[in-house]
Write a structure and sequence with these properties.
The chain has 16 helices and 5 strands. It has 297 residues and is an alpha+beta fold.
């Protein structure tokens, strides 16, 4: 049931029509004869149609790990139950170097010393990711200043792309317009061999690997990372969270570094602002207005 849950969770596999429902049922039906030994079946690298390729790959790797020891089993099951991950933890396996090993060897048959290293790295990244996404996304109000997005921006341009020169900051969990499905951290963190997505995930890993990152003092450590400069358009978002806050659905229009619009909604036919003039307003004119209002009290 754990494996079927991970395959069929709507955030792990998108099923949009009746024919895909039928295909999913057929795939599950093909797995049923192996139900009493599902992990051993997954370890022989079977073909499992319909379900997301990244989730299938992840389940095969986890089958190797869970059967290695109780330590792996307990830790993997613990991380899978995280409210934001819902069974999708492939990026943690990737950050720990396990996906690379499995892709090269089709197993996880390393020696005991290597096992200790992989387990330590997996546990460390799992704990970091669990804290970040619990603090910021399962309970979004704890991320009022978008400190995680800003910290990742110091490492690189992680934004996902959409049509009409649009990019998304992944700064909201709103469901409408398929934003949560197509433009979320869960979408970015799916393990994929595509270079663009791998690069975006690497920026998250760089934040976790930063010496300043402190799981016990999360906000302050991320704020410290946000002091870094990129000498690019990203610095405007990094230094002023009001720019991200303006983008209620996370969208910007990126024509070039000199042509960036902040979208109040998902399209330009709603309220939008030019990034540099809006930044000037927020850091200079708007701040002066607040100061004057206070001085009149």
């Amino acid at each position: 049931m754990r494996v079927i849950h991970n395959f069929t969770h709507p955030e792990n596999t998108v099923i949009d029509n009746a024919s895909e429902v039928a295909s999913a049922i057929k795939s599950i039906n093909e797995l049923l004869p192996h139900g009493n030994s599902i992990l051993e079946h997954l370890k022989v690298n079977p073909d499992i149609p319909l379900f997301s390729t990244w989730q299938v790959l992840e389940e095969k790797i986890k089958a190797h790990l869970i059967t290695k020891s109780d330590d792996w089993k307990i830790k993997i099951e613990e991380v899978e139950k995280h409210g934001y991950f819902n069974g999708q933890i492939g990026f943690i396996l990737e950050f720990a170097g396990i996906v690379e090993y499995y892709s090269a060897n089709k197993n996880c048959d390393w020696n005991n010393q290597e096992d200790a290293g992989y387990f330590q790295r997996f546990s460390s990244y799992a704990d970091k990711a669990g804290k970040v996404f619990d603090e910021c996304y399962e309970n979004i109000k704890n991320d009022q200043d978008y400190v995680f997005e800003r910290a990742v921006l110091t490492k690189g341009d992680y934004l996902t792309t959409a049509s009409q020169y649009r990019k998304n900051l992944l700064s909201t969990n709103v469901v409408k317009n398929n934003i949560k499905r197509d433009h979320s951290w869960k979408r970015l963190l799916r393990i994929s061999e595509e270079e663009t997505w791998a690069n975006r995930r690497s920026f998250v890993k760089q934040v976790f690997d930063d010496d300043r990152f402190d799981i016990d003092n999360l906000d302050d450590s991320l704020i410290s990372i946000c002091q870094d400069k990129t000498n690019s358009w990203r610095d405007y978002f990094i230094t002023n969270p009001d720019l991200i806050r303006y983008c209620e659905q996370g969208f910007i229009r990126f024509g070039s570094e000199n042509d960036i619009l902040l979208y109040g909604e998902s399209q330009s036919n709603h309220m939008h602002a030019e990034i540099y003039s809006y930044y000037l307003w927020k850091v200079s004119l708007d701040r002066k207005k607040v100061f004057l209002n206070r001085s009149q009290l």
